[in-house]
Amino acid sequence: MKDNEDITEKDKYIPLKAIFINALVLIVTFFVCFYEFPYYVDRPGGLDNINDKVKVDDAYKAKGTINLTYVSELRGTIPVLIMAKLHPDWTINPKSDANVGTLTYETDLIRQSILMHQSYTTAIMYAYQKADKKVEIKNEKCYVIYKFEDSNSDLEVGDQIITIDDFEVNNYDELGTFIAKKKIGDTSTVKVINDGQEYTRKIVYTGEDDQPVIGVQIGVEYELETDPEYDFTFNDLEYGPSGGLMISLAVYNSLVKDDITGGKTIAGTGTLDTDGNVGAVGGIEYKLKGAVKDKADVFFAPAFENYDEAMKLKKEKGYGIDIVKVETFEDALKYLEDKIMKK
Q: Measured between alpha carbons, how far is 242 from 119 in angstroms, rounded to an integer?
């Protein structure tokens, strides 16, 4: 061991050099692993048991499962982008491709999250009605989900409208009635909540033929009062309205005595409106691949283009899964009652 007086000037800088190298390695590692480029990657997801998401009090037990299918979206880091280049089922998308009108990639995620809650509460309400159980709309929350390019306001996507000119907004119809009484060129002050913060916005009414508008599209999230009660546990990383059909089927199955799963693993996709109509979705190929990967027995696909695309992929890949075309909730329910329960 060297005495203190034997330490050279060069030796004094060795620890400093080591610290610099270690810091540089950490910076490079962080950049490689965590820096996000303006891309995102889509890949097949899997199955998500809805009974883990929506829990109904005193629910009837099912032998099988009813599942959401989803597209798994990854951030555009260097490792992810390299993997996507090597994997045939992964797709790299520029974030700019998600821009539609005034929507950016980020604001579209907010919009999709609002639409998810709107769709899923609609699906739950429909399931209670079909099962002849008590369900009432207790409250409606009105959100801005799109801002038109000619809008003359500073409203933002994600704003929950609380009051407009001190008028408390309790539902969509009341908001529409209030706006209809205004004149083109009038102004209003709007109190909103966005991401937990309260803001005051200004709008100038525009329009044609004496029909005033505020230049935004409104989405509605319902708060329901039901008997039996339910608990809704979707998280902020899940978004989009495409699980409406499957959620409605799963909640319905929890409310009725006869198990419509027949012990099978049921999967699928499709929006659902208040009349029980099933709507088309995006990413059908990723959802079908995820369902096959997780060994689903049945896959419900919205009619027309979604169904045709799913059947084409099934033929190309030689999938053994049963793909069922549905236009309504009743189509899906009838298939389960006739083809699954009776086996």
A: 8
Reading the block at residue 317, the tokens are 């890949």
Residues 125 and 329: beta-carbon distance below 8 Å: no
Tell me the sheet residues that pair with 142. 220
Q: Dump the DSSP string for 257-302.
A: SS-TTTT-EEEE--EE-TT-BEE--S-HHHHHHHHHHTT-SEEEEE
Place of tokens 């801005």: 144
Q: Give CATH for domain 140-220.
A: 2.30.42.10
Residue-wise pLDDT tens digits, 32-76: 678 889 999 999 999 999 999 999 999 999 999 999 999 999 999
- Helix 244-255 to helix 105-130 angle (10° resolution) is 30
Domain with CATH 2.30.42.10 in the chain: 140-220
Tokens coding 90: 């992964």
Task: Give how far Cα 6 sits from Cα of 9, 10, 13, 324, Å.
Answer: 10, 11, 14, 83
Stated pTM of the model: 0.87
Say if domain 39-133+228-340 classifies as CATH 1.10.10. Answer: no
Task: Give the Å distances, CA to CA, from 251 to 56, 121, 237, 280, 323.
Answer: 7, 11, 22, 21, 22
Q: Which two tokens stand for residue 260?
A: 């419509």
Cα 267 to Cα 11, 13, 304, 337: the distances in Å are: 66, 63, 18, 15
SS3 337: helix
Residues in the chain, how many? Answer: 343
d(CA 220, CA 218): 7
Residue 243: phi, psi to the nearest 5? -95, 10
pLDDT, tens digit, 9 for 90 and up, residues 183-220: 999 999 999 999 999 999 999 999 988 899 999 999 99
Domain with CATH 3.30.230 in the chain: 39-133+228-340
Tokens of 145: 């989900």
User: Distance between CA atoms of 240 and 109, rounded to whole angstroms?
Assistant: 8
- Measured from the Cβ of residue 64, the count of other Cβ atoms closer than 10 Å reads 18
